Amino acid sequence: MKPDDLDVHLLIEGLYHRYGYDFRNYASASLKRRIQSFLKTEEIATVAELRAQVLTDRACAERLLLGLTVNTTAMFRDPSFYVAFRQQVVPLLRTYPFLRIWHAGCSTGQEVYSMAILLQEEGLYHRCRIYATDANDRVLQIARQGIYPSKQMQDYTQLYLKAGGLRTFSEYYTAKYNNVILRPALRERVVFGEHNLVTDGSFNEFNVIICRNVLIYFNQTLQNQVHGLFYNSLCKFGILGLGKQETIRFTKYETAYDDLAKAEKLYRRRN
Ligand SMILES: C[S@@+](CC[C@H](N)C(=O)[O-])C[C@H]1O[C@@H](n2cnc3c(N)ncnc32)[C@H](O)[C@@H]1O
Q1: pTM of this prediction?
Q2: 212 lines ligand 1 (CB under 6 A)
Q3: 33-82 pLDDT tens trace
Q4: Which residue in 17, 51, 115, 199 has its CB near the most CB atoms, within 10 A?
Q5: What are the pLDDT digits (tens) for 11-36?
Q6: Pocket lining: 114 vs ligand 1, CB cutoff 6 Å
Q7: Distance from the CA of 105 to the center of ligand 1, in angstroms?
Q8: 95 C-alpha to center of ligand 1: Å?
Q9: Ligand 1 within 6 A of 197 CB?
């Protein structure tokens, strides 16, 4: 192991053994980039110095925890995913009297509210319970509020239209100062909660699991482990939705799903 890699390895092991934060199977290239950026922000010279500080300073460890995960998200991110969801998945969902949907790694909630809007427009929302989880409590606090900067609304409006939105996007929020507050009805059937995909197990059986732009940060071992969790948490013929750069191919569960919309990474559990 190169000296730089060894320092990163010891830092990640230290975080796990001292605090139980488990980044041991995250993809190392991305972890290294995040650590370098954290060193700059904290004005710490080396990874070895950071490790020494983290082990004795819980506040620093918590900041590092936030720094190690990427929380970027948007409403109707990758709008073609939502078009495919409307066309390929919604007709299947209509056949169920009640639906449980899990958004794993939901960050600040925009993905969850986008799904709530889509389901409302398709007349399915009242039949759904949406579980929206993330390992990071800070992002969940924002998600629960459903308050976002007004300046993002122009982009979100464009994405909503590209995603096949059926109404006027501004119907879904009220503007207040520099923010918008999403309509409380969009939260009515959503439960937000902390869940760590590395360390926590299954907590229900779902008709749909959406986990977008999360597995990309995990190595192959951890991707396989989390796919095991998803497979065991989906009902027969349940739907799995991944991010654009993610795939079920090359994982242990490749043959357990059929493609529903290949390019959009929408899969259906075989049985
Ligand atoms: C890039 S965001 C993706 C947000 C949203 N799914 C999207 O596609 O727009 C990745 C999210 O995964 C969460 N995450 C990272 N590791 C996790 C883990 N082990 N368990 C649960 N969530 C995790 C991060 O906290 C972050 O909010």
Answers
A1: 0.96
A2: yes
A3: 999 999 999 999 999 999 999 999 999 999 999 999 999 999 999 999 99
A4: 115
A5: 999 999 999 999 999 999 999 999 99
A6: no
A7: 4
A8: 30
A9: yes
